[in-house]
Amino acid sequence: MAVLWTSIDAAVATGGRATRPFMATGLSIDTRSIRPGEMFVALKDVRDGHDFVADALKKGAACALVSRIPEGCSEEDPLLLVPDVLRALEDLGRAGRARARAQVIAVTGSVGKTSTKEMLRAVLSAQGRVHAAEASFNNHWGVPITLARMPAEADFAVIEVGMNHPGEISPLVKMARPHAAMITTVAAAHLEAFETLDDIAREKAAIFDGLEPGGTAVVPTGLESTPILLAAAKARAGQVVTFGPAPGSDYRLVSAKIAGDATIVQAEQAGKPMLFKVMTPGKHFANNALGVLALARAVGADPAVAALDIGLWAPPAGRGTRERIWLDLIDEAQSFDLFDDAFNANPASMEAGLEVLAGQVPRDGVGRVKRGRRVAILGDMLELGAGEARLHAAIAELPAMVSIDIVHLAGPRMRALHEALPREKRGEWVETARDLAARAPHLVDAGDVVLVKGSKGSKVSLVVDALRKLGQPGAAEAFKGKE
């Protein structure tokens, strides 16, 4: 692998001292996944990363970024000594950004940051070398790590920027210095830290603070907070491009029709008709795809090729991926479809997920029930503040809920939804996702289409795991290509 940081380069960037020469091919903050040749960054969280330096070096780390010589190590080991490890990581991120030739894109939003980042990766990969984090590295650690990992020869870089509290986005995007930046949407999320949606919008709009001179701001239309976003964009960007359903949008969504595992998108760009396909169901994916096309054009990519290549994208695991679970090795009809969206949830993303489920067609005549159902299995939405009970109960009033046959729920906050649902739609409600996972065989049947969604902290991924285990080993291979 190519050398990313030499001891000299890293020492100059951080102002640190290298105990001996080294050449690092990457960065890692986790000894469980570190690869030989990488620099181990000894950050402090629940545990102090210095406690794991000796283990990292034994696993082949090229060096360790530390603020002291850890136990079990000495000056003979390849260490980069700095006063503060997090500050040094930020310095590496700035230096990585400064030496890069890439066109840099920053993405934030209440919903859809990671899926948009991955859509950009798919769209831009055919037109140059793309650098983007593999995971949701979007916080005060993730952004500098992503920048510090950026190869100098990358053509495009996509930086995901998140927040939980006021004041987080601006310093991160000033570090990233994007040529183009996009807000996917503004919705009720992290309301424990923000009083109103307008406060969230103002924090999201800080993504434009770090734009390079003449940079492009890509702004969603059709939101109550769109005026706030537009005002911030116009104050800081050289060019403002809008996308969404509102008349007058530069990239206007005309319609998004779910057709099986795809979404057919009709749109207009500067008044000219566009027709393309997103190879996953969901109006929200179609809308964000327009923002992706705007970003691609802004950084010099061919927009026509980009529109074709959106079809190469599929959602990351846990963010709306669809799979078939076969319950029988002989009869392929004895199966159900599972949407795994267990990584994140707030009212907006919950509405989007239920819209996708409502658009699916179950299969009748199989299983115990003999009637295919749309089944929602939902876990708590976290960080919604004082109005969390009202926001959970309001899910019962969503238009998509009319088409949902039964709703199983896990978590104390979801009790409010259980009580708000019509009696005929009420499935099981339990305190924890683990309790619901234990009931997996009773929650679904052959012919069903099942959505599992909740905040990561609700642990509804346990239910996903339990549902997968209902499948017969080897059935996927036996029925491959017969779906």
UniProtKB/TrEMBL annotation:
Q: Where in the cell is it found?
A: Cytoplasm
Ligase: is it a keyword of this entry? yes
- Name the reaction it catalyses: D-alanyl-D-alanine + UDP-N-acetyl-alpha-D-muramoyl-L-alanyl-gamma-D-glutamyl-meso-2,6-diaminopimelate + ATP = UDP-N-acetyl-alpha-D-muramoyl-L-alanyl-gamma-D-glutamyl-meso-2,6-diaminopimeloyl-D-alanyl-D-alanine + ADP + phosphate + H(+)
Amino acids binding ATP: 109-115
Q: Specify the pathway.
A: Cell wall biogenesis; peptidoglycan biosynthesis
Q: What is its EC number?
A: 6.3.2.10
Q: Name one GO molecular function term.
A: UDP-N-acetylmuramoylalanyl-D-glutamyl-2,6-diaminopimelate-D-alanyl-D-alanine ligase activity
Residues in Mur ligase central domain copies: 107-296
* GO BP terms in the entry: cell division; cell wall organization; peptidoglycan biosynthetic process; regulation of cell shape
- Listed InterPro entries: Mur-like_cat_sf, Mur_ligase_C, Mur_ligase_C_dom_sf, Mur_ligase_cen, MurCDEF_CellWall_CoF430Synth, MurE/MurF_N, UDP-N-AcMur_synth
One cellular component (GO) term of this entry: cytoplasm
Do you know which Pfam families this protein is assigned to? Mur_ligase_C, Mur_ligase_M
Q: Which UniProt keywords apply?
A: ATP-binding, Cell cycle, Cell division, Cell shape, Cell wall biogenesis/degradation, Cytoplasm, Ligase, Nucleotide-binding, Peptidoglycan synthesis
EC class (word): ligase
Every copy of the Mur ligase C-terminal domain together lies at 329-455
> What does it do?
Involved in cell wall formation. Catalyzes the final step in the synthesis of UDP-N-acetylmuramoyl-pentapeptide, the precursor of murein.
Family as reported in the entry's similarity comment: Belongs to the MurCDEF family. MurF subfamily.
Q: Which NCBIfam families match?
A: murF
Identification of the protein by name: UDP-N-acetylmuramoyl-tripeptide--D-alanyl-D-alanine ligase
